[in-house]
Amino acid sequence: MSRILTLIKVKEKDAVKITLDIKKHFVEENKTEVTQEELEQIFFQKLSQHNYSEHFVQRYQLITSFYQKKVPFVILVCGTECMGKSTLVTQLAERINISNILQTSIVKQVMDNFGSRTPPPELDFSKSYTQDKIIETFRNTCRRVRDGCNFDISKCFADGKPLIIDGSHIDPSCYI
Fold first, then answer.
1. DSSP 101-147
2. In this predicted model, what pLDDT tens digit does every residue of 91-129 receive, in sequence order?
3. Residue 168 has what DSSP assignment?
4. Alpha-carbon separation of residue 98 from 52, 89, 168, 169 (angstroms)
5. Is the confidence at residue 69, as pLDDT, over 80?
6. Quick check: helix, strand or coil at residue 12?
7. Which of 24, 61, 105, 133 is such that its CA lies 20 to 30 A from the CA of 82?
8. Burial (CB count <10 Å: 0-12, 13-18, 19+), residue 57
9. Burial class (CB in 10 A: 0-12, 13-18, 19+), 39
């Protein structure tokens, strides 16, 4: 519960206090079994007592609806190398409780080494290329990586779980 509170932007210190208040409430009531409705009622009361508005209740309901309905989604984090994508993805996954992270650099390496098709030729940067040739080569690599991601994407959608795909070999148009 504390993690969900921080996810909906409740200050971490307050999240711990609210969670402990809820626990204390049920211990004092000698309740060992609680319905979701009872838990949420007390939860919303404690949010209000700690000066968190209806807006935070709506955030909570949105987040829990994703988890309850098991709405799958894919988050793409792309950019050039050494930009902090992996650090961002790790923090994001921890913050919103996602355990499925796929790194395109690993997928590319697997596809290049074990794929059924011959990998597209890499550019030799000691030579001069047109902008169109560079873009075409990049897009071909991205499509190949996207093919390598198919199983993971299908599994996440079948299981109703979110997936974060991270790397420099991502062309968002391949994922639409």
1. EEEHHHHHHHHHHH-SSPPPPPP-TTS---HHHHHHHHHHHHHHHHH
2. 988 877 788 999 999 999 888 887 656 666 676 666 777
3. S
4. 26, 10, 20, 21
5. no
6. helix
7. 133
8. middle
9. middle
Instruction: List Cα–Cα distances, 30 to 24, 33, 44, 159, in angstroms.
Output: 10, 9, 20, 37
Alpha-carbon distance of 171 to 154, in angstroms, equals 18
Confidence at residue 63, expressed as pLDDT on a 0 to 100 scale: 80
Burial of 47 (0-12, 13-18, 19+ CB in 10 A): buried
Orientation angle between helical segments 36-49 and 54-69, nearest 10 degrees: 150
AA letter at 87: T
With CA atoms as reference, report the closest residue to 151 among 16, 159, 105, 76: 159
Q: Contact at 8 Å (CB) between 146 and 82? A: no
**% of the chain with per-residue pLDDT over 70:** 94
